[in-house]
Task: structure prediction
Amino acid sequence: MSAPARKISAAVIGCQGLDVLHMMRLKVASSLLMAEYIQADVQEWNHQQVDLLVACIDDSNGQQLLREASQQGLPVLAVTRKVLSGLSIPGVAYGASVRDIFQQLRQLLVASDNSDERYKPRTLFRSLSGSKGKPCLLHMGLVKLLIDATHTRATLLRDLPYENFLKAAAEPGWTLSQLGSAEAVDECMADAVSTHAFEDFCWQAAARSPEPLVQRETTNPCQLRGWPEVETGKLPVQWLLPMAAMMRRPWQPGELAQATGTSLDDIARIMAAAACTGLLDGSGTGAAPTQGSGNKVSGFFTRIAKRFGLNFSKGLQV
Result:
């Protein structure tokens, strides 16, 4: 029997302050990481999440950047004209060869991999993690969009079908830039083609992705704080019953899957989409949903219950 194929992992390497020569050598060295089954993407660092940060420390800005990153537990690599033995962090000499840079990247990335899953691909939603509070410009290939600071609106900046953006959202290779001024936002908005509710964008992207948009772990039962702002007809029909049940009370994933006859994979995709849009309540307190649509929502529950032969008046019963 042949050995199972080894899964290729993804890593993002951020860089700052490198000249053209070292940027080119870094990219070539990164491509050699495929020998370790690591597909590395080199990006200019702009405060986005990365797996390793490379920077020149021959000025105070570079020194402070790598020092702060190292203190936060992020693997770092310095490029310097100074004596390497005097560094407190890993480094390569100015003019280092591709081989020298590759060996350092390999050692740092493999050494930082303490899990069985290695590096996760940088999808749009993984890139957005932790960025709430500032507008974010994201692009991947021809696809480019702007997410507002509150993560409520998604503005498309390319004249492409909405479907293209939805399919690309779960693919790896996204680059994120946080916009620090109103002028930068206005400059991006000059290319705006259309604007959509972030919940609509997220849930429709989740419906098209075979994997959960983000990985999440919780030991508490979860419920929906409210029904997402998306047309019900745009969601997989098998999602409607578990979503309706999550509007009633908290559930453990396995319990919900068994009670509604839904696969655990679908439950994971639902909960991940809810987490991305701030609709997932994992407190386990069983608080009533906050979305104030009253009788309209209750009527929807009733229709869902009748369709699947369930009775919500006494809890979810099959």
